[in-house]
Specification:
By secondary structure, this protein is an alpha/beta fold. The chain is 49% helix and 12% strand. The strands form three sheets. It has an eight-stranded parallel β-barrel, surrounded by five helices. It has a three-stranded parallel beta sheet with strand order 1-2-3, covered by helices on one side. Strands 4-5 form a two-stranded antiparallel ribbon. The radius of gyration is 25 Å and the shape is globular.
Length: 550
């Protein structure tokens, strides 16, 4: 960064407004491009970048640096962005680390505009390549030519980093949290990136290359075959029909889900409506948003999860107090029960949008029975209010809960009679059972939903639901894991809800299994000592049954 003293601060600062405008235009174009490629939700990051450029604190700091420290505008922009990035990266949690990357990204863009040069020389790829980087900013990722990108590998980032999110929505391989040494590799080095096992092989020998070439061909073939049959139901070899549905967060996800053969939605994450904006969405806006989604599914079921704010999902305009342990704090249903101004408009919107559709309502983060009674009471109040307002709504919606806190799993037999269904959130159930922060990249080795402790809780929940005649699904990532499918089927799971892209393979695996065999696999898995042992065992079983999974 060129840094030079200036004498005329006013003239130096006069360059700022036009540069900010130009950077905003560029970001708006990127937003439109990203919306087409990866959908509204993931594209919203560019709108967030535009808001950063409108942030009076950031702009004020730039102005102060120029007027008080008499430095050139480019340096002031860089220093201000760096200052905020540093503040953000000192906060705990992946969310803030990602925001730090965003502020730097915005700063670099503004500097490039001021210097009248394109923002970052576009990484132009002339042949299919694997991208190795410290971290990838949203601008990097969206500008890359996706037809040339085979996968990503970064030093920074975790499960919810932009790299991982983008890779997932594009169906590409990605490995995050790699050692710094990957940055020393020269362009054109030969590497193998194994997204299934989280491995990067450098300078592989011929034998390894041949093995992976074969696996790649097999994976491509498998993908084509599973996609070709993705719209057929998942019926096991011995005739059991299992529901395979999707986890989505917006209309784009809804469309992808349908294209990949999902038979509805097992988890509609509604937080997308609240994040990256300045005010709370009102009831009408929510009715429109939910209706747009349920319309895509017609008569298929759509399970709408009420907002799961808190934990790593912070909503600035709610001004929630900072907590020492946000994942153990006022999150999900806990927050909704104490904030009816947040909860009621959402419930009323869901009831209204559900009219004429197969919408179900689900509460996240249930810990004790009383919370369910309270939530249902508020739902009844909402129905009463809608009646008085003369608005039509779905009066008989099914009401279920997520089982993602161990206390709810342990007490499932007591909770089952008062709900219509359970959906097991294995992402949180894993973090709370094993006491591992799900966003901490240093604890990846412990944070496995295949841990027998988690599997045993899942079995308890399924048994309790069935004893009471209720259906039960899994909407955590585990449901879409090929190695988990025989175990969950064997435990009697009714509904598998997953990332839309995972649906075709999940259906294929279910069609290749018999329930008695799956039962045997599940029983054995529950006796094993570790997550790794479970995975190794199921992999062997799948091999001996000649079921392809990758
Ligand atoms: C879960 O916890 O498994 C879940 C599906 O919810 P989320 O990932 O949104 O917390
Ligand atoms: Mg959860």
């Amino acid at each position: 960064m060129d840094r030079c003293p200036i004498t005329d601060a006013a003239s130096e600062l006069s360059r700022l407004p036009a540069a900010v405008e130009k950077a905003k235009q560029q970001l708006d174009e990127l937003f439109k491009k990203a919306r087409k490629e990866v959908g509204e939700k993931d594209a919203e990051i560019f709108q967030a970048h535009i808001s950063m450029l409108e942030d009076p604190e950031l702009i004020g700091m730039i102005e102060n640096l120029v007027t008080e420290q008499h430095i050139n505008l480019e340096a002031a922009v860089w220093d201000a962005a760096e200052h905020y990035a540093q503040l953000l990266s000192q906060l705990e949690g992946e969310y803030f680390q990602a925001r730090a990357v965003d502020v730097r990204d915005v700063g670099l863009r503004l500097v490039a505009v001021l210097q009248n040069r394109p923002f970052q020389p576009q990484l132009s790829l002339s042949k299919p390549s694997i991208i190795l980087a410290k971290d990838l900013t949203p601008s990097d990722t969206v500008q890359l030519d996706k037809t040339m990108v085979l996968g990503f590998c970064t030093v920074e980032g975790g499960e919810t980093s932009h790299t991982a999110i983008l890779a997932r929505s594009l169906g590409l391989a990605a490995v995050v949290g790699c050692p710094n040494e990957i940055l020393e590799l020269t362009d054109g080095s030969l590497v193998i990136l194994d997204g299934y096992q989280g491995k990067l092989y450098v300078d592989p020998d011929k034998a390894l290359l041949d093995e992976y070439e074969k696996r790649l061909e097999a994976a491509k073939g498998l993908k084509q075959r599973t996609l070709a049959r993705c719209h057929e139901p998942a019926v096991t070899k011995d005739g059991k029909r299992v529901e395979v549905v999707a986890n989505i967060g917006n209309v784009q996800g809804a469309k992808t889900a349908i294209q990949h053969g999902a038979e509805g939605v097992g988890l509609l994450r509604t937080e997308f409506l609240y994040l990256e904006r300045a005010t709370m969405p009102d009831e009408e806006e929510q009715v429109q948003a939910y209706r747009e989604i349920v319309k895509v599914f017609g008569k298929m079921p759509v399970v709408l999860r009420t907002s799961d704010i808190g934990g790593d999902k912070e909503i600035p305009y709610l001004n929630l107090p900072r907590e020492m342990n946000p994942f153990l704090g006022e999150r999900g249903l806990r927050l909704c029960l104490t904030n009816p101004q947040l909860f009621k408009p959402q419930l009323k919107a869901a009831l209204r949008a559900g009219e004429g559709f197969n919408l179900k309502i689900m509460f996240p983060m249930v810990t004790v029975e009383d919370e369910i009674h309270q939530a249902k009471q508020i739902l009844d109040q909402c129905k009463e209010e809608l009646r008085k307002e003369g608005k039509t709504f779905a009066a008989d919606v099914e009401v279920g809960i997520m089982v993602e806190v161990p206390s709810a799993a342990i007490m499932a037999d007591k909770l089952a009679p008062i709900v219509d269904f359970f959906s097991i959130g294995t992402n949180d159930l894993t973090q709370y059972t094993l006491a591992v922060d799900r966003t901490n990249p240093h604890l990846i080795h412990l944070a496995s939903a295949f841990a027998p402790a988690v599997l045993r809780l899942i079995r308890m929940v399924i048994d309790s639901a069935h004893t009471c005649g209720k259906w039960v699904g899994v909407c955590g990532e585990l449901a879409g894991e090929p190695l988990a499918i025989p175990i969950l089927l064997g435990m009697g799971l009714d509904e598998f809800s997953m990332n839309p892209i995972a649906v075709p393979l999940a259906k294929h695996i279910l069609r290749s299994l018999d329930v008695p065999i799956a039962k045997r696999i599940a029983e054995r898995a529950l006796t094993l000592p570790s997550a790794e042992a479970v995975k190794t065992y199921v992999r062997q079983e799948m091999q001996s049954l000649s079921i392809e999974i990758d």
